[in-house]
C-alpha cells in the first residue's frame, strides 16, 4: 500500500512538471544556434558584471524635519588669518539676545600672511572644487561619502625668523547659543559692557588698519575631515585701511549617517558683501570682518543607502532570463525567415528550369528539394 501511494504521488508530481525534458535524440545542434548562444552568454556576463557595480554603489537619501533641539550649544570652528598684528585686533561673538560669548577657546598666533591664490596648487584645487560645488550640487554626495571621523589636519603656516610676523592667525572654537548671532573680528580687544560689549579701538592707529584676510576653515558643529565648507580657502585683499567685510551665513543642522561616519554637524550657505567705510560719503560702519549667522528651523538627515541583496538577485535573474528568452525568440524568427527565403528561392529556380528543356536531367532532384521545402513550410 505504501509503495502504491508513493508511486501515485510520484506520478502526480511528474504530471505537474512545467519543464518537460526533450530527449537528446530529438535535439539538433546548429552553428547558428551555437553562435547565438555564445553572444547571449557573453551579453549576460557583461550585464551581470555591470549590475554588480551598481549593487556596490551607494546613494545619499535626504530627509527633512523640524529641528527640536534648541537647548544645546552650537560649536563654531574658526581658522582665519588677518593682516594685522595680534595686539591690534579682537574676536568675539554677540548673539541676538545681546549675550557676549567668551572667546577663551580662540588662540592668537603671530604669523606671516602669504596669499596663496597663484602660488599653491593645493589652494587652487580647493578653489576649483568650491566653484564646481556651486554648479554641480551632486558633488556634495561624493564629499559626504568620503568623510571620515577624526581631527582636521593642522594648517601649515609659513614662518621666518628673519621676517617680522605682521599677521595674526585666529583659530580655535567657540560654543554659542542656538540663536542668530554675529561673530566679528575688528580693531581692539573686546571688553564687557552693560549694553553689550565694546572694543578698545582708540589706542590703535588708523595707519595699521588692514583687514585683508584668508579663511582657512570655518564650520559649525562637529568637525569632519573630508567635508569642504563654502568659505574654506576664501581670500580677500584690500588696499584701503577702512574696509568692512560682511558674510551673511544661513546654518542648516545636519545629521550625517554614512558607512564611514555618523555625526551631528551643520551645513551652511553664505552671501558676501564688502564696502569701504567713508563717513563723508555716507558709508558708515566699523572696519572689520563680520559674520552674521542665522540658524534654520529645519534639520536635514543625510543617510547613505545601499541596494538590498534580494533586489540585486531579482535584477540579476531578470537580466539572465530576459536575455535567454529574447535571444531564443530572435533565433526562431531568424530561422523562420531564412527558411521562407530559401523556399522562395528554390521555387523560383524550379520554375525556371522546368521551362528550360535543356536541363530536364536535374528536375527530379529539384522536385525532391521542393517537396522538402513545402513540407517545412507546412510544418511552420
Automatic annotation (TrEMBL):
Top-level taxon: Eukaryota
TM region(s), chain numbering: 36-55, 312-338
Bilayer topology: Multi-pass membrane protein
Domain Endoplasmic reticulum vesicle transporter C-terminal span(s) in chain numbering: 163-329
Subcellular location field: Endoplasmic reticulum membrane; Endoplasmic reticulum-Golgi intermediate compartment membrane; Golgi apparatus membrane
Biological processes annotated in GO: endoplasmic reticulum to Golgi vesicle-mediated transport; retrograde vesicle-mediated transport, Golgi to endoplasmic reticulum
Keyword Heme: no
Annotated keywords: Endoplasmic reticulum, ER-Golgi transport, Golgi apparatus, Membrane, Transmembrane, Transmembrane helix, Transport
Domain Endoplasmic reticulum vesicle transporter N-terminal: start-end pairs: 13-98
GO CC list: COPII-coated ER to Golgi transport vesicle; endoplasmic reticulum membrane; endoplasmic reticulum-Golgi intermediate compartment membrane; Golgi membrane
Main location: endoplasmic reticulum
Described purpose of this protein according to its UniProt entry: Plays a role in transport between endoplasmic reticulum and Golgi.
Record PANTHER family: ENDOPLASMIC RETICULUM-GOLGI INTERMEDIATE COMPARTMENT PROTEIN, ENDOPLASMIC RETICULUM-GOLGI INTERMEDIATE COMPARTMENT PROTEIN 2
Family in the record: Belongs to the ERGIC family.
Name the record gives this protein: Endoplasmic reticulum-Golgi intermediate compartment protein
Amino acid at each position: 500500500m505504501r509503495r502504491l501511494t508513493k508511486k501515485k504521488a510520484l506520478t502526480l508530481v511528474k504530471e505537474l512538471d512545467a519543464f518537460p525534458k526533450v530527449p537528446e535524440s530529438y535535439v539538433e545542434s546548429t552553428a547558428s544556434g551555437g553562435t547565438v548562444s555564445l553572444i547571449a552568454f557573453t551579453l549576460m556576463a557583461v550585464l551581470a558584471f555591470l549590475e554588480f557595480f551598481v549593487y556596490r554603489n551607494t546613494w545619499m537619501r535626504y530627509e527633512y524635519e523640524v529641528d527640536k533641539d534648541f537647548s544645546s550649544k552650537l560649536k563654531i570652528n574658526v581658522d582665519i588669518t588677518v593682516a594685522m598684528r595680534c595686539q591690534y585686533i579682537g574676536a568675539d561673538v554677540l548673539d541676538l539676545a545681546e549675550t557676549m560669548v567668551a572667546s577663551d577657546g580662540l588662540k592668537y598666533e603671530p604669523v606671516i600672511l602669504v596669499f596663496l591664490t597663484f602660488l599653491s596648487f593645493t589652494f587652487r584645487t580647493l578653489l576649483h572644487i568650491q566653484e564646481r560645488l556651486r554648479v554641480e550640487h551632486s558633488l556634495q554626495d561624493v564629499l559626504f561619502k568620503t568623510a571620515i571621523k577624526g581631527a582636521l589636519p593642522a594648517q601649515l603656516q609659513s614662518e621666518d625668523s628673519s621676517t617680522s610676523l605682521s599677521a595674526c592667525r585666529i583659530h580655535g572654537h567657540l560654543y554659542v547659543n542656538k540663536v542668530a548671532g554675529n561673530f566679528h573680528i575688528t580693531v581692539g580687544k573686546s571688553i564687557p559692557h552693560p549694553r553689550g560689549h565694546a572694543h578698545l579701538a582708540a589706542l590703535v592707529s588708523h595707519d595699521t588698519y588692514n583687514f585683508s584676510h584668508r579663511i582657512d576653515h570655518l564650520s559649525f558643529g562637529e568637525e569632519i575631515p573630508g567635508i569642504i565648507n563654502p568659505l574654506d580657502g576664501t581670500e580677500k585683499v584690500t588696499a584701503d585701511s577702512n574696509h568692512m567685510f560682511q558674510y551673511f551665513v544661513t546654518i542648516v543642522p545636519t545629521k550625517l549617517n554614512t558607512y564611514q561616519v555618523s555625526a551631528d554637524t551643520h551645513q551652511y550657505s553664505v552671501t558676501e558683501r564688502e564696502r569701504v567705510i567713508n563717513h563723508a560719503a555716507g558709508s558708515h560702519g566699523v572696519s572689520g570682518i563680520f559674520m552674521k549667522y542665522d540658524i534654520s528651523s529645519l534639520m536635514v538627515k543625510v543617510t547613505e543607502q545601499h541596494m538590498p541583496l534580494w533586489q540585486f538577485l531579482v535584477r540579476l535573474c531578470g537580466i539572465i532570463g530576459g536575455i535567454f528568452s529574447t535571444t531564443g525568440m530572435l533565433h526562431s524568427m531568424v530561422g523562420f525567415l531564412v527558411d521562407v527565403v530559401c523556399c522562395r528561392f528554390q521555387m523560383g529556380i524550379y520554375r525556371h528550369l522546368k521551362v528550360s528543356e535543356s536541363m530536364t536531367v536535374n528536375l527530379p532532384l529539384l522536385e525532391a528539394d521542393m517537396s522538402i521545402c513545402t513540407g517545412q513550410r507546412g510544418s511552420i
